[in-house]
Design goal:
This protein is α/β, with parallel strands linked by helices and 519 residues long. The chain is built from twelve helices and 20 strands. The strands form five sheets. An eight-stranded parallel beta sheet has the order 11-10-9-8-5-2-1-12. β14 and β15 form a beta hairpin. α10 runs parallel beside α12. The chain is globular and about 80 Å long. The model has no long low-confidence stretch (mean pLDDT 96). The structure holds 1-deoxynojirimycin (NOJ). 1-deoxynojirimycin binds next to loops.
Length: 519
């Protein structure tokens, strides 16, 4: 498989917790979460069962896109603390046998980055080709947004996402205009080396790897991803030589490509053709008790990707993230528990978005904060307890980074820990069961047993060596059954009522999930 490095062993049983740093825990009462707040909560994360974290960008930034607009790749944003605080977080995590991924944003910077300020100058300098510029301010790059009219330099600069995020120049796979450089030109080569330096800096400090933002978007005019694969293979060679233990997880959504590029794992994304939204985020999600959803298109796509990525558990299915609606916006109560029985029994590393473990809600009607727009409602401060600001911060409520869910019965960690029937405890139990059974771990195989169009339940077998486990999920309000020839063994996980089999049929009660060993 291309240049893929050996997968770091810790990824085998990794369960990730994604932390949006501004909203997790404010340790210095300024209304915004910080690195020391994360360090304080490592034991909480570990107790839940997660042994790895991914932190959204925490670098110096004007925060026009919540930190995905980096101004300085080498410094922690002062509002989050210092580089020393982050180094301490790495060390504290390692003491607890936990691992930390930072968020690498290699595709673009903020307009305030010193590279961009230099690149905007009319005089040629070291950074002239660090970004993608057309030859004249009147020439807009076709099919892409651009920044123009703010520089002495005569040209328009291609952007990668929002119009304040200029695209770094890694070259064009197919060049169609004179200003489009090849991957082998000096400018693109220097950009790549600069990004390796960034990675080197944090890996030396103790970070365990990166979640990579928009990883398939760096080389332009590259419809089949060939240039981007080559670029990441180059980075893989560097990592193999200098940091063989570094873990790399891509936001790419095409595992066949990202894995060839040397990534260890890729994400299933909520956009593109994955049908991920059919599960939890559409009008009739599969995991709703209404029982009007469809799992078959998701499974078909998953299977395709699974085959393309050599049947390895390398596609990570997140519970949510900072870009999509909270899980609890569309599904609730038992539905959430059954959704987690799915998420925690699939191949690939599970990713739990902070607050999803207590069913935090999407906060409706918020004004956009730092480029969040409709994403803002999924980024509200963590709800720890019944104290001031739900224990997130001791600042005045109006100083909080984003307003909190103001509903009186908003879920909190404290209340969920007290209630042994809570979602929190269900997730904790599910992670323990996953860890105790190699078949359920990240690299265990999967065979889909029952995933019919517009039909419930959903069933699959996970296996590793001699161990085989049947997973049966019926979030619907109806009692259902499916044909299955085989003897059911022990129930190692059960939510809802008993699942029974008579050698030809398996019967599943309403709102039920079960993991059953097979001989
Ligand atoms: C994907 C990130 O997850 C998102 O939050 C960000 O706005 C864009 N990439 C641009 O970096």
């Amino acid at each position: 498989m291309g240049a893929t490095g050996k997968q770091p062993e810790w990824l085998d049983d990794a369960v990730f917790y994604e932390i949006y740093p501004q909203s997790f825990l404010d340790s210095n009462s300024d209304g915004i979460g910080d690195i020391n707040g994360i360090t304080q909560k490592l034991d909480y994360i570990k107790e839940l069962g997660c042994n790895a974290i991914w932190i959204n960008p925490c670098f110096t930034s004007p925060f026009g896109d919540a930190g995905y607009d980096v101004e300085d790749y080498y410094s922690v944003a002062p509002r989050y603390g210092t580089n020393e605080d982050l180094a301490r977080l790495f060390a504290e995590a390692h003491q607890r046998e936990m691992h930390v991924l930072l968020d690498l944003v290699p595709g673009h910077t903020a307009v305030t980055h010193k590279w961009f300020k230099e690149s905007m100058k009319a005089q040629k300098n070291e950074y002239t080709d660090r970004y993608i510029w057309t030859d004249s301010v009147w020439e807009e790059p076709q099919g892409m947004g651009c920044i123009r009219g703010i520089s002495d330099r005569d040209g328009a600069c291609v952007v990668n996402f929002f119009s304040h995020q200029p695209a770094l120049n890694y070259g064009y796979y197919e060049q169609k205009c004179p200003w489009q450089q090849s991957m082998d030109d000096e400018g693109p080569k220097a950009t790549l080396e600069a990004m390796k330096d960034v990675m080197r800096f944090w890996l030396k400090m103790g970070c365990d790897g990166f979640r990579v933002d928009m990883a398939g978007s760096l080389v332009k005019n590259d419809p089949e991803g060939k240039g981007n694969i080559l670029l990441w293979q180059n980075i893989r060679t560097f990592l193999n030589e200098e940091f063989p233990k570094a873990a790399m997880v891509s936001e790419w959504g095409e595992p066949d490509k990202s894995l060839q590029g040397g990534f260890h794992m890729d994400f299933l994304l909520h956009f593109g053709p994955s049908h991920y939204n059919d599960l939890f985020r559409c009008e009739e999600p599969f995991f709703s008790s209404r029982g009007k959803g469809d799992i078959s298109a998701f499974v078909e796509k998953y299977r395709e990707n699974y085959e393309k990525s050599e049947r390895k558990g390398l596609i990570c299915i997140p519970s949510g993230n900072h870009d999509m609606d909270r899980l609890a916006r569309t599904i609730k109560g038992d539905e959430l528990k059954i959704a987690f029985a799915f998420l925690l029994s699939m191949p690939g590393a599970p990713f739990i978005y902070y607050g999803d473990e207590i069913g935090m809600r999407y906060v409706e009607g918020l004004t956009s904060v730092e480029g969040g727009y409709n994403r803002t409602g999924s980024r509200s401060p963590m709800q720890w307890n019944d104290g001031l600001n739900a224990g997130f911060s001791t600042a005045a409520a109006e100083k909080l980074y984003i307003a909190q869910d103001s509903v009186a019965d908003r879920p909190t960690v404290f209340a969920q820990m007290e209630d042994k029937n809570s979602l929190y405890h269900e997730i904790q139990k599910l992670i323990k069961i996953r860890r105790a059974h190699p078949a359920l771990l990240n690299k265990g195989e999967i065979e889909f047993v029952y995933a019919k169009k517009d039909t419930y339940p959903f069933a699959y077998v996970r296996s590793s060596g001699d161990e085989r486990i049947l997973v049966v999920l019926n979030p619907s309000d109806k009692k259902v059954s499916f044909p299955y020839e085989g003897v059911l063994g022990e129930n190692i996980y059960q939510f809802g009522r008993d699942v029974t089999g008579d050698g030809t049929t398996v019967n599943v009660d309403a709102r039920t999930a079960a993991f059953i060993t097979l001989n």
